[in-house]
Input
Amino acid sequence: MPPPYHIKQTSIRDITCGKNVVIVEPANLYECKLGDDCFVGPFTEIQKGVEIGNRTRVQSHSFICELVTIGEDCFVGHGVMFINDTFSSGGPAGGDRSQWKSTQIGNHVSIGSNATILPVSICDGAVIGAGAVVTKDITEKGVYVGNPARKL
Amino acid sequence: MPPPYHIKQTSIRDITCGKNVVIVEPANLYECKLGDDCFVGPFTEIQKGVEIGNRTRVQSHSFICELVTIGEDCFVGHGVMFINDTFSSGGPAGGDRSQWKSTQIGNHVSIGSNATILPVSICDGAVIGAGAVVTKDITEKGVYVGNPARKL
Amino acid sequence: MPPPYHIKQTSIRDITCGKNVVIVEPANLYECKLGDDCFVGPFTEIQKGVEIGNRTRVQSHSFICELVTIGEDCFVGHGVMFINDTFSSGGPAGGDRSQWKSTQIGNHVSIGSNATILPVSICDGAVIGAGAVVTKDITEKGVYVGNPARKL
Output
């Protein structure tokens, strides 16, 4: 008798890559796009439609959801979580993508480990401290820390 | 000569499931109970004795420890960590389960990514923001954010 | 045609262990040193040069980077992230190790789940609360919580 549950496996499938991309498995990447010289550490998930620029590094344990775009020369630390559903109607939007929001990360952005990134825009060159929770757009270069994140 | 350390593997073993449960491996689930139509993402651990209600989704990178009960139609985001040992005696309780505390999550509760849930009760319909650290019981519906989590 | 990206696999390689060490795979451990009776949970990464004392437990989803030393009888909770690069020059130090900083954790230190540990020293017997972000040295025993972490 088969088990009464369905098991899927993480995989790397249907991704588009530039040159010299390195990915450490186990990782769950699908229908996303990585530029040249990108690195993706283990225990990561990158969902469909995500675009990541040249030379950007995504460290272990990070999760990048649909509707996130990340520029070039960025650093996404370990355990960073991106979010596209803000529970704006009091709970998960589920399949209703009209309620999902997008995130744009510029170039040369550094995001510290265990940071949490709500759907926002972050400008070029910004630094997000480890453990920060980014709840608003960041339009000015600087170092942002805390929960919620504020400019140092 | 065998290596001088013992290697174990994550596995899905001795779990009880309702209908249409989907689990993405690698995942470490043992001696827990999942209702109908539950989803459990990759890089998760759910320990023994945990009970999860129908249609509840547990996203990637989350850890649900012993003594946690989660209701129906809940959403547990990515990287959510539950806790049963509050180091109340100044350090880990270790094997002394009399010092562990339990967590009860109601129905229709949504928990944002990277949230941390100390041993508490959370009432039906509550929304826990991404990155929140919940240190006290939540008895009133609403949105709770920050470290420590407070009502918005 | 081979895929245009390079896949690596997590592994346990070139580690030095005391007696009775248990490691749960998948895990990525390399060129580090674990004392007697250590436990390392699944979905963890421990980098080269890390030294961990006897009877210390590293729980699932944690990341311990280069230049971290952890004493005996410590508890590293789930999803704990250590950091050696503080982006002090406005971005990742990359290969320039002269900019990396070290972390020393004493004996009998307990670190709660989802905590983030910048490069600091933490004295014997300190307790770091779940979800705390430790940004400064801790020289006095006590319980430290919040973002940034402060003594309770």
Observations:
- The CA atoms of residues 47 and 136 of chain B lie 23 Å apart.
